[in-house]
């Protein structure tokens, strides 16, 4: 059967557990299944148990072992439906909607969604703007709006400034590669912002920012141009409208779909939004799904890590 193109086709296609296993195995092991314990490629397939047995170390393993699905009693057809909806719903999808759609509890759906967001993380080390193209840099503040606060709280927040109590996110947009990167940062001090620019942008790139004083001095390392938003938002090719567009999509997702997001979890919501944004043009729904499914191996996120009881395991 051809690869499903719509959600309805995907639900029908992946209703068979063996089809799910074959799809995950195909994207996880391009050259055939490998034993997670010893790396051996020769094995038996135990059809009744839907698992493999290694001919070398004789250990049995399923397609879930060593992936984001490990130790989950939730069947793969529900996992794959949730993944399809996550990567293809432009404004995200809440755990309540997922719980109703695939028939699990909201608490389980919440955990499922966090694990899937963790799988979407890429962690690329390639710097942006390598082709000497323009890179936009900007930061935004995520949190409650002062106008919606109680009068007493509004006074306290106004005294401390508009960014008080909010989470700071810095982002970059490579216009030529059409790629966005964003992460939570501790403050908007010059050392912090410029260190992020140096870590993410190629030295040959043109860097466009607003006129925040924290960006002063970047011209010593980059071709740096500034747009003053008090006077104008666009000066020829110099603007930050691309990254501002990403902030708009991000906040529409956070405010409209997820409503309340803890700062502790915000990086994973950024991973989700970046995945959809960076794969929005050349790829269709099926392509995004298969790309995401190919990234599930070698990643593990436990409930203790999600809830902050222990630190996340590096991958």
Folded structure, characterized:
The chain has 315 residues and is of the alpha/beta class. Helix content is 38%, strand content 14%. The chain has eleven helices and eight strands. The chain has a five-stranded mixed beta sheet with strand order 6-5-4-7-8, with helices on both faces. Helix 3 (76-88) packs across helix 10 (285-293), helix 4 packs across helix 5 (106-120) and helix 8 (241-258) crosses helix 9. The longest helix is centred in the last third of the chain and has 18 residues, at 241-258. It is globular and about 70 Å long. The mean pLDDT is 91.
Task: Give the topology.
Elements (H helix, E strand, L loop, with lengths): L6 H7 L3 H12 L14 E4 L4 E4 L5 E2 L14 H13 L6 H8 L3 H15 L13 E9 L8 H10 L6 E8 L4 E7 L4 H11 L5 E5 L12 E5 L13 H18 L7 H13 L6 H9 L9 H4 L9
Parallel strand pairs: 4-7, 7-8
Antiparallel strand pairs: 1-2, 2-3, 4-5, 5-6
Unreliable stretches (pLDDT < 50, length at least 5) are none
Q: What is the count of β-strands?
A: 8
Major β-sheet, in short?
5 strands, mixed
Helical coverage, percent range: 25-40%
Radius of gyration: 22 Å
Overall, the morphology is globular
Give helix and strand order, one letter per element, not per position: HHEEEHHHEHEEHEEHHHH
For the terminal residues, how far apart are their CA atoms? Answer: 34 Å
What is the SS-derived class? alpha/beta
Strand content: 5-15%
- Widest beta sheet: strand line-up: 6-5-4-7-8
Mean pLDDT: 91
Helix tally equals: 11
